[in-house]
Amino acid sequence: MMQKFVIVMALIATITACKKNEATNSGLDARAIPLSDSSLMDLSYGADKQQRMDLYLPANRTKNTPLIILIHGGGWSTGDKRDFSFYITELQRRLPGYALANLNYRLVKGNLNKFPAQENDVLSAVTFLQRQSESFVFSPSQMIYIGSSAGAHLALLQGYKHADVVRPKGIISFFGPVDMTALYARAVHSSLSYVLEAVTGYTPQENLSAYHDSSPIFFTTAESSPTLIFHGGRDNLVPVEQAESLHARLDSLHVINQLVVYPDEGHGWTGDNLTDSFNKIQDFIQKL
Known about the structure:
Strand content: 15-25%
Radius of gyration: 24 Å
Order of helices and strands: HEEEHEHHEHEHHHEHEH
Helix content: 40-55%
Number of domains: 2
Mean pLDDT: 91
Low-confidence stretches: 1-31
């Protein structure tokens, strides 16, 4: 009886080994099975209910898959990641092999969540994604930031100021503020100056360092990431001079950058110019 048991176990071991070898030889090793696409909605990266992101993971991704991080606008006090629904769809269509993360962050409400809460949230989100890159399967070092308005400001600030955490492969700004002091001076006694006071808690005269420390342009270096800048020539909220000053600064540092100004557009655009923007985004990213 014992002899029969030993023979049966030997046969099972032989069959199992053969099947394992057959799977490996035919490319069916479990470790090599292609990953399917996945969408993880309202993924938490912090304790606050606003510290959430949507993560879109493409099929067949690997540890070398790049990640695009999107940051919505809204004057640091309004807006939602849902505002970027069109951007997500368009990027998935144009760059199907890229992972996408679409962020929410704490918004300024009265005396709550004043700056640098939003900066800290983006930093926390990037750090979370970096640490979880192996689990989600994408590259922790091939990140690209895209933001619009206040979100572009946060994308630029993260990319330049916190390059020691992740130096992004590229940054794309849609009409983002870059010099908060200059922006305040241009907007003094307008609704925007009150927005800046509400976000920082101060005027520049009261706390200049708060404006300096939240200005992306002051954290640019010769090692800063390639940057694509979009702006409307008739932007009455964030004047085109903000984009021009960043372009000039990056040029002086010999940092790869491109400034695209649509002369007749304001603070945002649609139609043919938005299509042109995405054509340029696709070309920019594919060359990184």
